[in-house]
Structure prediction request, 281 residues.
Amino acid sequence: MEASWIIGILVFLLGASIGSFLNVVIYRLPHDRSLVSPASHCYSCETRLGFIDLIPVLSYLILRGRCRHCNAPFSPRYALVEATAGALAVICWQMFGTGPYAVGVFAACAALIVVFFVDLDHMIIPDECTAVVALFGISVDVYYLWTRGADYAIALTEQIGADTLTVYLPRSLIGLAVGGGVFLFIGWLFETLLHKPAMGMGDVKLAGAMGAVLGPGYALLSYFLLAIIIGATVSILLMLLRIKRRGDYIPFGPMMALAGLIMLLYAGPTTLWILSRYGYG
Ligand SMILES: [Zn+2]
Prediction:
């Protein structure tokens, strides 16, 4: 076997182990419970899980998705989260190497995995996850501003009297304001027109955080459109499969998280694809 294959498997296992921790976060964060204690245990028979039960993905396959002690079935979601985190770690490593940028993208992806499932279960988007995404966007922006200077900032020229003055604005903070602002406005519009709440503050904050990552331009617009396309597709599928009926509430957070994952990894190609759908280029 080539060395890169072995490294790839190790990266997958590292990502999957982090995925195992994300399962704990998804389960405990909405209940404000400690993320470190008590140690993982079977939710049916309460037996403390040992090493053999906790190998990411493999345990699920070896034990055929059941508790070794009481035979209670474990949700396949645990293995799915681990496998997804493992795959994302490999993708981040392949695309961005092993530096701080790769680690940042992976952290933001991990936060969005948690958003996906917590919003699905509880209809809340934890602020901690939104903060991780926003912090990643702002850190990258600060780094670019540091290395490229004002060239990288958004220049806003104003005519004041006879002078043309230029204000330099940081991309991430403008993106954050635009992202959050657009969602706040859409939410207000829906509430005013339909007299029912359309969006929670969690969605608004997540939109702001994605704005901090993508900046206030086409990438952010594409992110919104992608979330809407995914949302519409999933809603139609759920209605065709008769899992949901017309007028049932379908949370938008998971769609925003999924669109966010795609944009974190493939912002360029996705933006070009979306723009071409809408007649640009
Ligand atoms: Zn058990």
